[in-house]
Amino acid sequence: MDRRKILLMSGRPRWLLAGNPSLQLDWNTGNAWLNNRQYRGETAFKSLFSTFTTPACYVTDTAGVLKLMPANSEHGIYGSDRGQLIEEARTNLLTYSQAFDNAAWSATNAVVVADNAAAPDGTVTADKITDNTTSGAHLLTSSSFSFVSGTTYTYSQMFKMNDQRYVQLGLPSSAFGLNAYANFDLQAGTVGTVGSSATASIVALSGGYYRCVVIAPATSSSSNVSFFGFVTSSSGARGQSYVGTGTSVWTWGAPLEAGAFATSYIPTTSAAVTRTKSTLSRTIEASYSAASGSAYVEFISANGSGTQRIWQIDTDVNNRISLTRNASNQIILDVVVGGASQASVNLGTLANATKGKVAINWTAGACAGSLNGAAVVTGTPASIPTVTTERFGSDAAAANQLNGYYTRSGRYQQVLTSAQLVSLTA
Question: Predicted confidence band at 21 (pLDDT cuts at 50, 70, 90)?
Fold first, then answer.
């Protein structure tokens, strides 16, 4: 058995072997241990937190199934086998994001049949889109939105191939130019031609669905529409004209977000909807002294880069020990006292949407960390801050969210050895 599997028979987890953690949180199951006392189940788990604020949101499990989590819930208990999703606030700017038969969407040389098949969340709410036999572009356009120059937008949509293999997502030329589009192969599950001003990705979901994503910065401020349509190959031109053959796909869930990467799906009807940010923190127990100690965090990184706080203990923004994934995807251990950096240690890089295991230690004069079993990297902080609060996936200003999944975490009173740090993260 994997040494990090949890064995509840003993009342303590076995996924953390080194030392004797004073606090252990298993976000996959909603079980916790504080000073060897177990807290089992959502109510007990959440009792350890002073702030546990999470919006209702969709998580994607390891099988690619979308599951709707209730607000302020411990996601592992509700079926998220990736743990707790912690995200920044985002808004889906498109209306009727899964009702393509609504007047908010305009079909050109295409026919929409509503609620025709099972969607990625298991409900029979996916719409069938079929091209007709007309010669021309075959597409649907969204309701108009006012794009702002200099802002990066992410448009994504979920598709399943019936007998139409290739789809295209595009942003309006009036705001983005003619090269903000991307093609996707729903049979191979790959990205095809991408316009020179865009980036794109494709993610497999359950039931044959794929989430297709196109990202581009607006170069002009303009009110216009986004679109999705069919092309005849993975290299089809933007808004390709062809003679239709009556082929079709199923589609569901079309968010347009102001941001440089896709976050969890936000459904809408008659108006744009904002998903609020997640904030998770706890008051550090009086028995714990942060003058020296260690911590372990296991998580899945965001779909894109940015300043993303993984974990920290602090008194305020100027006094903290923290782990951050920066805009270069580097995992940084910082020790800050009175606003002055005592140590800033680069533990290595972690790609987007990738599992990370980080273990760190600290004491006056020395700190160290290991990422995913790599050799420890060290720093020399002259002093260690006094701390009162532990935060998970955001900073002291409740900002810079992880935008990923929290799986497991632990905090130790003792300073773990370099060998123990490597062993924990291997």
Answer: confident
Residue 401: φ, ψ to 5°: -60, 155
How far is residue 265's CA from residue 404's CA, in Å, rounded to a whole number?
A: 14
Centroid of chain to Cα 269? 23
Query: How many residues make up the chain in this entry?
Result: 426
Quote the CA–CA distance of 55 and 274 in Å, as a whole number. 10
Q: What is the pLDDT of residues 163-216, one digit of tens each?
A: 999 999 999 999 999 999 999 999 999 999 999 999 999 999 999 999 999 999
Question: Which residues, other chains included, contact 101 with Cβ-Cβ below 8 Å and sequence gap of 6+?
Answer: 112, 113, 114, 127
3-state secondary structure the chain: CCCCCCCHHHCCCCCCCCCCCCEEEECCCCEEEECCEEEECHHHHHCCCCEEECCCEEEECCCCCEEEECCCCCHHHHCCCCCEEECCCEEECCCCCCCCCCCCCEEECEEEEEEEECCCCCCCCEEEEEECCCEEECEEECCCEEECCCCEEEEEEEEEECCCCEEEEECCHHHHCCCCEEEEECCCCEEEEECCCCEEEEEECHHHEEEEEEEEECCCCEEECCEEEECCCCCCCCCCEEECCCCEEEEECCCEEECCCCCCCCCCCCCCEEECCCEEEEECCCCCCCCCEEEEEEEECCCCCCCEEEEEEEEECCEEEEEEECCCCEEEEEEEECCEEEEEEEEEECCCCCEEEEEEEEECCEEEEEECCCCCEEECCCCCCCCCEEEECCCCCCCCCCCEEEEEEEEECCCCCHHHHHHHHC
Min mean pLDDT across 30-39, 86-95, 145-154, 387-396 is at 30-39
CB atoms within 10 A of CB 1: 6
Residue 84 CA: distances (Å) to CA of 22, 74, 102, 408, 417: 21, 7, 34, 9, 29
Cα 333 to Cα 369: distance, rounded to the nearest angstrom: 8
One-letter amino acid at 246 equals G
Give how far Cα 113 sits from Cα of 255, 312, 364, Å: 20, 49, 66
**Quick one: how far is CA 54 from the chain centroid?**
14
- Calpha distance 61→81 (Å, rounded): 6
For the chain, give the percent of residues with pLDDT over 70: 96
Q: Which among 360, 277, 271, 373 is positioned nearest to 324, based on CA atoms? A: 360
Q: What is the pLDDT of residue 13?
A: 54
